[in-house]
Amino acid sequence: MNEINIGTIKLPVNAATKTFAVLAKRGAGKTYTAAVMAEEFFKAGIPFVVIDPIDVWWGLRVAADGKGKGLPIVVFGTNNADIPLNRDMGREIARAIVRDNVSCVISTYGMPKVAQRHLIAEFAEELLAINNTPRHVFVEEAHEFVPQRVMGAMSKTFSAVEALVVMGRNKGLGVTLINQRAATVNKDVLTQLDTLIALRSVGPQDRKALADWVEAHAAEGDFKKFIDSLPSLPTGEAWIWSPEFMGVFERVKIRKRETFHPDPEKIGSKDFELPQIQPADVQDFILKFKTSKTGSTITTKVSDAPKKPLGLRADIVIADEMRDFESELRTLRNDYESKLMAKDIEIRRLNGVILAAQRALGTSNAIVEGSPDAYHGVGNEANAMLDKLGGMPKKIYSLLLEHPSGLTKRQIALMCAYSVNSGSYRNALSKLRTMGLLGKNGDIWQALTR
User: Fold this and answer.
1) Of 338, 370, 340, 328, residue with least CA distance to 352
2) Rg (CA), the chain
3) Among 13, 66, 130, 274, whose Cα sits 20 to 30 Å from the Cα of 421?
4) Among 259, 342, 343, which Cα is nearest to 38's?
5) CA distance 11 to 252
6) Where does the pLDDT of residue 364 fall: very low under 50, low under 70, confident under 90, or very high at 90 and above?
């Protein structure tokens, strides 16, 4: 599957590792639109996570008619949940979903704000550190985690979620921020977006925030037409603006959801009967989690470029040709990334088959290259060695085990959140190299195993 079908527009599958914002006033369809994206990621074999402080995303587990089964995902929460949630489970949830490569909803509804923020900060930090496959994170009510004004108590949560947006792509993570108002989401975070999906919106401050985003991206298009139409857009229609990722600026219709949408007005009516979450194909994961709590080379030729009619001014011809080349390059890049992602998903699926066979034959200690065990279960001896390293050296070595092809010194520092020029960072690299655990090939550092 090389495309994500959200309606009258299709996104490349590598949208999973890009950053989006879905912005609209209440009732205009922002959560509905994001849920359609989640359905499509699931079809493409790409796991996702939803941070849900309003407790509506459990509807993914139920069919659109409110009766049949929906998607086999895990719901953590205090209501409508498979697994009860508490403030100290963030890191454990991140490790479990990466280990078993499942999709989940983390519904923090009903938890005190301080507990919510602690949980999400821990989860986001851990996920960024250990993720090893394409994965998408939806952040509902984004202003709760990346607000325009960051007060003291919010700084840890803000930093953790901002890092997902800014650095997530380095670890295969994409993010979609979902919010009623553009003006209440941190401006610096908004400028990091690849794609804006704007549904009905009326606030002048929100228009100003959108104008700032357009200015930051130097986006071309009929901005006045876009702004003027926002207050009257029908529910389910949106403008999608993706100046660099897809090179599109157009008005689109979102397709119908295939899973249940918990419409607050419908749920509040006397005739409405709340659907039951159906059993899903994730019971092994739920049991395991609860138990753990208790005991093609592509080439292009300039000569292939479309020919322009004679008689036009030279600068107009050149500008048009540049736009054609940029569009072609964008298409090729997205197609290339999508194929790489599809290959990664297929490798992980086949590795899962191999590991299942090994376990059935009693040889489950064998490590399959590219499997989660290859990154997180490198053997008792290696684990003991990692424990002895401790601190910064352990974090660096663990990161490089997850990237067998190696990383540059600057990439390692960025992904571990260290200063590339600090003495402690240089000392950690030196210690690992002295121990024979790191090798260097040009500018690339690689982990050496014993």
Assistant:
1) 370
2) 23
3) 130
4) 259
5) 12
6) low
Q: CA 315 to CA 61: how far, in whole Å?
A: 55
Number of domains into which the chain is organized = 3
**Tokens of residue 123, six digits:** 């989860």
Helix (H, G, I), strand (E, B) or coil at 253: strand
Q: Are residues 181 and 209 in the same domain?
A: yes
Domain membership of residue 394 as a residue range: 378-447
Q: Where a domain ends, among 376, 394, 428?
A: 376
Q: Do 183 and 80 have their domain in common?
A: yes
| Owner of token pair 């997205």 | 334
Residue 446 is predicted with a pLDDT of 86
> Above pLDDT 70, what percent of the chain?
77
Express each pLDDT in 87-146 by its tens digit: 999 999 999 999 999 999 999 999 999 999 999 999 999 999 999 899 999 999 999 999
pLDDT tens figures, 162-206: 999 999 988 999 999 999 988 899 888 888 889 999 999 878 888
* Contact partners, residue 123, CB within 8 Å, separation at least 6: 51, 90, 91, 93, 94, 106
User: Is the domain of 69 the same as that of 217?
Assistant: yes
User: Within this chain, do residues 190 and 284 fall inside the same structural domain, yes or no?
Assistant: yes
CA nearest 13: which of 370, 352, 345? 345
- For residue 41, what are the CA distances in angstroms to 6, 44, 145, 369? 10, 5, 23, 25
**What's the pTM value of the predicted model, to 2 decimals?**
0.69
Q: How is residue 145 written in tokens?
A: 């985690």
What's the angle, vertex CA 152, arms to CA 150 and CA 158, rounded to 5?
45
- Indicate whether 115 and 21 sit together in one domain: yes
Could you tell me if 70 and 119 lie in one domain?
Answer: yes
- Domain with residue 206: its CATH number is 3.40.50.300
- Distance, in Å, from the CA atom of 263 to the CA atom of 249, rounded to the nearest integer, reads 29
